[in-house]
Amino acid sequence: MQQHALAARKEEATISEVKAEDATVADASLVKAEKKAPRQNEKPKTRTLDVSSDEAFPTLGGGSVKPISAHVPSGWGAGMFAPIANGNGGNGGSATTSTGAFTPAVQGSSGQSTVYLLPTQKRPASELRRAPIELVKDIMRSTSTKIEMQQTSNQTTVFIISGTEANRQKAHREIHKEMSAKKTVTIKIPAIVRPHIIGKAGSKVQELENMTATRIKVPQMQPSDGPVAEYDDEDTIDITIEGDEYGVPIAVQKINAIVAERTITVTTRIPDIPGELYPFIQGPHRKLVEEYEARVQRVQVPDYFYSAKSQPFSPPSGPIVITGEKQAVQEVRAEIESKVAEFKAAGFHSVLVPVSKAKHPFFTLNKGQLIHEVLAKAGCTVILPEGAKANSLMVYGPSDKIPQGYEEVLKASNSYQLAAIDVCKAYPNAAGGPKLQARDITRYLKRTGEFASLQSEFDLEITTPSDDELYDLQKPCVIQIIGKSTETLNGAKAKIQELYSKLTPGRVLRFEVEPLHHRLIVGKDGRGVKRITDKFPGLGLLLPDDTEEAEIVLIYGGRSEDAEEITKALEGVKEHILSLVEAQKFDVTEKVITIPRDLHAKVQGEDNTTINALNPTSLHVRFGAPKARPGKPAAAASPGDEDKITIRGAKANVDNLALAIQQFVASIPEDGNIPIVTEQFGYPLQLSAQLIGSKGANVNKLRAGLGVEINLKEGQGEIKGIQVAVDAAKRKLNSQIKEHLDKAIEHLKIPQEFHSTIIGSGGNSVRKLETRYGVRIMFPRSGSHKDADGANIPAKQEANEVIIKGGKDGVSKACAEILALWEYEKEKSFTATIPITGRGLEFMFKNASREIKQLRDESSIRLDIPQRDAIEKDEQAIIKIRGTQDEVKNAKTILSKIVKEAEQTTQRSISVEKQYHRSLIGPGGQTLKGIVVGAGGPDDKQALARVVRFPNQDSESNEIVVQGNSAVVDKIVAAIEKIVEQKKNQITETIEIAPEKHRHLIGREGSIRKELEAKFKVTIDIPRQKPGETNTSPDIKITGIAEDVDKAKDHILEIVKEPEGETIEIPTRLYHAVADGGQFIRRLQRDFRVSVDHNGQQRPVKPTEQKPDLSGSLPLITDNEEDASQRFTWEVVESNNQGGEEGDFPWVIRGKPEQIAKAKTEIEKAVALAEQQSSIGYLMLPDSSKFRLIIGPGGSQVEQIRRDTGCRIIVPRNQDVGEPIVMHGSKEGIEKAKEIILGLVKNGDSNGRGRGRGNGDGGV
Questions:
Q1: Cβ neighbours, 10 Å, residue 919
Q2: CATH number of 750-782+797-829
Q3: Among 82, 334, 1094, 1109, which is least packed by CB within 10 angstroms?
């Protein structure tokens, strides 16, 4: 590189010498010219200038001066000359570029310049657009100069130009532009410089073309050219410059200057190094790369974290790239290659470490921070495998380092924690399945940025399923959280679970719209979706990414918890969307044409450019067989599907596109090479900026979408590409020209106070006007900007100016409507103002936002309330009210009251240890409510929450914020401090209560405990009993002041005091017959107010009963009028009462003595009855709807049968056909019970009942 720089400097010196020599010659000529220069008001005498004289002009016409050879240095750099090839032009061209190629221009006396055109430099007369003398006249008029044209004996044309220096320069340029011979030169430049020649959006190449009046053709990079620049600075491209003898050399010089500036450094790549060695070349934490970059500009060593296999490893993502001064680059490259040789000689090895795949992301976080730590400590790298080894990591490095690397990977793996949440579990009963609901909520949360916010809040990583996993309804929807702290992990997990639990299936609405109609919803640049979400705040609108998917998902994210209100809101949005579609929709048809598969690429074109040209209406086009879509496998292909092209859209457009495709295919030559054509077109010069677009945006969009080259200059355009693409580009440009020519701009003078009316809430009104009339409406704003067409909008409109821009008809109608609205508002416009401080404004927004919203919603007034962030606390601001007279008066009354309260609001913070917060709030918030209401504050729940705010449980703050009227705030603070002081004097006393009695102190959902805490002003801590555990602690802690604790303790002991009891022993074998599945015990508790237990003993095992097989003898339900009581199945078996366990089983009855006696008598009767239950009857009825006749209201009928027959009767609860009614009792008893039941069924049928299902208990 240094050698190149030296060569460049030598070459630069040579060129400087030549330029100096030319300058000397020019000066000599100037002396001679000045001797004969005309005095003022005298015409110059050109005959004294002999331009054919080698003495006067030694460099002109190839005379006596020795030609300068073009030296091409061995590399790119400052002062270099780019090689020139294929030079041609009207003068025969030259293979070298030198200063001698420029047409001489001699500076004459003050106010004059002389230009010479040699015979070889002239354009043939046949190529001139007008006669030379006419061209000179045109140039004089356009440049405000005076030009004399003479011709010498050797046919050199001399132009003497008089005028200002700037105008002479313009005339000089125009002379060469119109009369110099055309010249074409092709130069080679490094491909890496191409972007700098083109410039951003083509700005640099256009600048060069304008400066030199040339056309510069920079070829597009083809895929076959490979990577550009950064990987190989030896690749070159040919740039062609077309122009005249004067402009082309200047353009070459300018391009060479850019090349010289951009190729001072060299870039090289090392492509053959194994990727698994890249981490060792980087060094721990990239330290070796940093050392290399101290010597060169840049060393790019891609990260190597993954490999699909280990023998050999997968290739790296790219080569190692080094950029800098050549000698330094060569030294760094040699060092890297030397290190690689050492690594290969050392014989690196790998070993697998068992690490769950879920923990793999830990190692690649923060650019592989953990991998670099392992490399620094153990000298080994970590590679993440795939496939069968997915639950392990590879440690790779020198054999002696492998053991330590193994240990470091295990240690690093254990330092991170993982939490996985299958959010499908939040929706077990969702319509369409849990995954469908989880999928759409996940899409919504990703789109709203909720996961990104949680990552920032908790400093961890959250991973959602990939699209393939998300759309596969057979797979779970797992959200993975990775972090170091259990606390942050649990915090994020709780937040995620809360988000999903709030977004219930009732908040989601799905419906289908024809996929091709989705664009009607999206609108231009997505404005349609924004308008919908602005109109319906709190709504999430999810459109499918799949262009063939019809389903649209609406998600309600608002605050309402009312199911009816949510459903109404979602249905409202759905109806709005469907009405939008209905107003614009078109009939969709589908057509399939057959085109050989090998021609599909031609029809598509590179990046779909050809199909874009053929498909101006953006129909949906599918090439070949149906492809797999997200969550939906590809349909089975039929023979010939690969040759099909399927088109969907409006019928006329579909037919047109099908015909266009067929015609295009027919036009493809046999060799498959589609010819490139170039077409010219004209356009109004004043539309140049609009057609080019801001920074070339419009032209670049056409180039990219249609694959054409477009050049626009001074009202003339050129389009180059395949014929269909050129035609499509011309159509688009002509359409744009027509649209721009139809445009109009109107400036309306409307007082600024009416602007908000025209704009509407959230811009809704002005957007409707813009959509209805196809116009752009601009209101005054600070700063300057451009509109979508690239045209400048005034930097600052007048305060009362509204600008309407668009088609003439639309602008006219929009102006009329705006002016009519203004007149209407003027007639009904009343205003009022209310002063408020910044401090009052802050509290007003906090405390009265709902009232302000209600005021806006329930009237047509407009409120102009300053933004609270824009006003200092002590600064005075003004609230403006506008509307009808009555509305303004009412609004002022309401707002004045709100403002007064806000101004009187104060805020205090007190620090209270968190251990006292629960006591201050109290059960169900009762203590806090008592504090606030007692101080004169509100008792409304929401208002109460605004008055006293406690910090979140996760917060480290102890600050309690109290705000409101200053007197109320002081009282609340005093009450809190008093309670806290009392709490500090509290004691905690522990009493032992048997765990089985804890339930008497807890109650349903803690109701008894809360009642005790409120009554005695204490806190009661009862150990939580876990299912299946028998070692629950008996200790109950009571905390409060000593006096209250004593009272609470005495009361609790009284509650759990063991009542007097009596034990009754009954035969163990009869336990289940007496207990009747627990119903008998519950009846004792209900009827006699006693408790029943079994002294801690386990219940006896229930004896097995012999059940008949009734499956083959089910009675049939028919339409026969035969008595339903005659259609039944009856089976009797012997009871197993006399078998089972021997001995007695205790029944302990506790309660009042007289109630115990009654319960004891009832138990004895039940035992006697159970002794008699020697048989079991199974009664099968054909119609389970008759069961309600047997059960009776509240089970009264079946209870009556039990009393009348002494039988235990069980009626099936689920009333499924095939389940019998079971009767336990004596043979006589069950027969009697059967007859009673059949009688009830018979009476029910005769009364016309029995068709419905009954309610009641399933058995007694």
A1: 21
A2: 3.30.1370.10
A3: 1109
DSSP 1069-1081: GGHHHHHGGGHHH
Alpha-carbon torsion angle 850, 852, 856, 858, nearest 10: 60
Distance CA 11, CA 14 (A): 5
Element (H, E) at 497: helix 486-502
CA-to-CA distance for 1174 and 1133, rounded, in angstroms? 9
Q: Does domain 830-906 have CATH number 1.10.10.10?
A: no
Task: Tell me whether residue 1183 is exposed, middle or buried, using C-beta atoms within 10 angstroms of its C-beta: 0 to 12, 13 to 18, 19 or more.
Answer: middle
Q: Please state whether beta strands 182-190 and 84-89 pair in parallel, antiparallel, or not at all (unpaired).
A: antiparallel
**Whole-angstrom distance, CA of residue 107 vs CA of residue 117:** 15
8 Å CB contact between 96 and 184: no
* DSSP secondary structure letter of residue 371: H
One of 3.30.1370.10, 3.40.50.11060, 3.40.30.10, 3.40.630.30 is the CATH number of 183-220+232-263, namely 3.30.1370.10
Q: What is the pLDDT of residue 230?
A: 39
Q: Could you tell me which of 862, 873, 858, 799 has the C-alpha nearest to residue 832?
A: 862
Amino acid at 1260: V
Q: What was the pLDDT predicted at 573?
A: 94
Could you report the per-residue pLDDT of 266-290, keeping only the tens digit for each?
Answer: 788 898 899 999 999 999 999 999 9
Q: DSSP state, 269?
A: E
- Which run of H or E residues covers position 557? none
What is the Cα–Cα distance from 651 to 270, expressed in whole angstroms?
56
Residue 214 burial by Cβ neighbours in a 10 Å radius (0-12, 13-18, 19+):
buried
The architecture of the domain spanning 350-415 is 2-Layer Sandwich (3.30)
The single residue listed with the structure tokens 């495709």 is 661
Return the residue matching tokens 């506008």: 882
Amino acid at 903: E
Question: 773: closest CA among 747, 806, 743, 802?
Answer: 806
Band (pLDDT 50/70/90 cuts) for residue 1259 is very low
| pTM greater than 0.70 | no
